[in-house]
Each structure stands twice: as C-alpha cells, then as structure tokens.
Amino acid sequence: xxxxxxxxxxxxxxxxxxxxxxxxxxxxxxxxxxxxxxxxxxxxxxxxxxxxxxxxxxxxxxxxxxxxxxxxxxxxxxxxxxxxxxxxxxxxxxxxxxxxxxxxxxxxxxxxxxxxxxxxxxxxxxxxxxxxxxxxxxxxxxxxxxxxxxxxxxxxxxxxxxxxxxxxxxxxxxxxxxxxxxxxxxxxxxxxxxxxxxxxxxxxxxxxxxxxxxxxxxxxxxxxxxxxxxxxxxxxxxxxxxxxxxxxxxxxxxxxxxxxxxxxxxxxxxxxxxxxxxxxxxxxxxxxxxxxxxxxxxxxxxxxxxxxxxxxxxxxxxxxxxxxxxxxxxxxxxxxxxxxxxxxxxxxxxxxxxxxxxxxxxxxxxxxxxxxxxxxxxxxxxxxxxxxxxxxxxxxxxxxxxxxxxxxxxxxxxxxxxxxxxxxxxxxxxxxxxxxxxxxxxxxxxxxx
Length: 449
Hints:
This protein is mainly beta. It folds into three domains: 7-150, Cupredoxins -  blue copper proteins (Immunoglobulin-like, Sandwich); 159-298, Cupredoxins -  blue copper proteins (Immunoglobulin-like, Sandwich); 324-448, Cupredoxins -  blue copper proteins (Immunoglobulin-like). The chain is built from four helices and 32 strands. The strands form six sheets. It has a seven-stranded mixed sheet with strand order 11-10-9-13-18-15-16, with no helix packed on it. A seven-stranded mixed sheet has the order 23-22-21-25-30-27-28, with no helix packed on it. The longest helix has 6 residues, at 7-12. The protein is globular. The termini are far apart.
C-alpha cells in the first residue's frame, strides 16, 4: 500500500489489476460486471502468488454506494469451479443472499448471475463466495472484497481508511498451499496463514497524516479462520460501528477489539500532535508475538482542531428493544466428532446435513428469537447468523451489549446467547465463520415465515 490513500484510490479499489484480460461485452445498463477469475498478486513482495480474485485481484474492487442505492451486479464465473457472491452482513432480500445450495444454485463455470438488491443500511460490508464445502478454498485463494454504503452525511474526518486484513498459507515458492479439506484443520482452529496482509500486501502498511488529523478507520477481517485481537497504540480510538451497524461511540477496553473472520469494525481517532509521533494498529499474538498491521506517522502542518468524536445516527430500522420473555429460545450444542467419516462437527448431538438438511427451527416474521451457542470443543467458534442483526446478551443478567452484531465469538467450553427479531422471509444460514468449521459440518439454517 502506498504511503497515502486518497479518496480516488478508495473509490477505485484496494488492488490494481495485475493481469491483462480480453475485453468483454458490457453488461446491460445499470449492471456492474464483476468477474471471478485467476490472477497474480505480489503478496509477499517480489514473488507473485497465483490467486483467484474478483476481477483477477485480491482483495477485489471496493464496491461503493450511497444509502438507498440499488446494488446491481452481474457476476461472471471465469473459474474452473462453481461459485457465488454472498453479500456478507446485509439484511433482508433472501433471494439475493448468494448461499449455495440454500438460496440459489451455484453459478457454473462460464455462467453468470445477476444480483440486484436495495441498500437500505449504510455501513461496511463485504462480498465473497458461499458454496457449501468449497468456500474455504475459494476464499483461501483470494476471492473477497469490501462493500461500502455511505451514510447521507458522513462524519467529519481528515482521512478515511479502508483495510482488508487477511492471512495466507504459502509454500517456499510463495504459492498457496493446498490441503483445504484436511479433517484435522476442520476439527481444530481452522486454516491459519503465517503471512498477514493488509489490502493484499504483506503487513505492515505505512501511512502519514497531519499532526492531530482525525482518522476514520474501517477494517474487515477477511481471513479464513484467524480471530484477530487488534490494538491501537499512540492514539485513543473510539468504536463507532460494528458489523455495519452504528453504535454509541465508546472507548474499547485496553484500546483493543476482538475481530472474528467476517467481522467489521469502524473506529475514529485523532493522530498525535507531535511531528514524527506514530499511531499503530497492532495484531496481538500469543506469547507477546505482536505484529504491526498499520503504522501511521504524524507529518506536516497541524490539522485544524475538531470537536469531540461523535456517534453516527442509529439505524431506525432496528428495534429499540427485543422482548426476551416472548422470544423463541433455541440452543445449538456444538461438539467436534472424535472419529468417523462424514461431518467433523455435530449440532445438538447429531451430524448435520448443513444446508441440505431440515430447518433447525422456524420463526414468524417479527418474532423474537434467542440463540444459545454452547461450545463443547477446545477451540473458539465464530457463529454467524445471516440476514439478521443480533444483540449479544449478558452472561449474568437479562441485559444486552449496546451494539448490534452479525456474529458471536464463543470461547472454548463456554456458552453465549444472542437475540434478534426475525425480519425478512426466507431461508437463512447459521454457521461458523471459521470457514473450515462450516465446511466440516458446523452449519445449519432456519426459516422466517
């Protein structure tokens, strides 16, 4: 990533085209063409890695809209395997979810599919394939990108940064290691790569801003399995949105946030006012093996002093409260299978048939649902509920956290509860966002009727 990231660079995407491809016929008026095809990327510097990417790049182009726009994309599959586009984090419109085989058939090689959906909520989302059993390899080879829907009146800031955080498992020649169907990985922590990248380049990324400049930092963890504990040093961050939904601005404990695969966080902070001072985004590792992902230096003339950091407007489409006493209560007791062929995980004591099996439950539209995630394994889970915004419930009382989530991290041997109000009719996936777990059977679905 270059030393500065302009608005033009953000609008054009976080990766430049690396391969020459023949021109295609234009899509019908109003439709944007988006291809899945092989490409090459300089992930680790001089050596190029063979990847699969949207428009041949990883991450793919940033798709940027304003609230109320229609997303209209013609997805063209130029791979040698089926794929889809799943619009991760968006509420509603089940037919456009892109989850195969639950909501659509996978798009065959050489075929296309038109996605059209209203972008009712502003926020940071992402797009990626969702083909049961194949998603880990499609994502692990690079198919991923950001979807940004701007609010009508953005918060005042001097810089607006978009960061795709990712990790890669490469061999000595700098190529992606295979073995995506390894049973041990499916039962364990998932596929963790040693090369950590920011916007498709080896970390850390370097930036410079005016002393005292206000920075809006929007980040997404698009790795297959790595749960990232991220800390800001050298500045005081305020979280202003989580998983695409605004929240009251708050200072995270120890200036750190846990970011599961698929999760998105937005933060604002002011740069140090001393020339040469630095603010960093750091990935915390075990045994103190931390690594910087972003290093921002204060440089140049001081920025104009701004008022205290404020919150984004709350989403009026989400309910002000959830009537927990009236909620449909559903538990998912999750355990790894110790032996045998077939799915690596069980839910409520039985191997699942994932999206081909029966619905775990049905909920009336407008009805409240409480999900209990009971983790009886030795690894963390990152359970994700499609199409809904959830409140994470308190462990010791009947309250909830003051922000909305698409997913919940469940530590080993622990139980977490989340609640939501069922909104749009259709079939909605529930799965572990650690993609090797999902492909190993940690997936089911429910229906809103």
